[in-house]
Amino acid sequence: xxxxxxxxxxxxxxxxxxxxxxxxxxxxxxxxxxxxxxxxxxxxxxxxxxxxxxxxxxxxxxxxxxxxxxxxxxxxxxxxxxxxxxxxxxxxxxxxxxxxxxxxxxxxxxxxxxxxxxxxxxxxxxxxxxxxxxxxxxxxxxxxxxxxxxxxxxxxxxxxxxxxxxxxxxxxxxxxxxxxxxxxxxxxxxxxxxxxxxxxxx
Length: 202
Prior knowledge:
Elements: H1 10-18, H2 22-40, H3 47-63, H4 74-92, H5 120-133, H6 138-148, H7 154-161, H8 165-180, H9 188-194
Helix pairs in contact: 1-2, 2-3, 2-4, 3-4, 4-7, 6-8, 7-8
């Protein structure tokens, strides 16, 4: 199912979704729900809230599909939508008095599954990485996550974080410089990817 979309662009998939094709909607959901959940859980430890926000994003997509504009990047569209939902939900809940995207917390530590660790020295590396991540600002953590885990471009990161291109590059660069103090030769990138396994939504 959905084989006709495997070589097609997001533009075609999104266009079919807007036209009301349920197969397109199902594929969009299945392709992005796990990455959305992982992204959302970095803003809050309330997994139920994140799931509710994701649910609301897709409910509104289905409800207002005929009014949606064209996009050639579905992941970017969904990330931006989810982040807005989370900010709104946290504000309504009274967790932050004046929460906006600039002051939004971003919790990013590497959760290591036992089967990933091959040696004691590797476990020490993971602990070093988490310690290094703690030295970054929430904005730097978010930018690093979007760049190297979600694999967004600088332009796309800027749209999610409401930054211009140069500010985005500077944010990523400063974060990388801090991480390189503990991990020369960009070794930390290996551990970032290995420590970012999908989480179960059930």
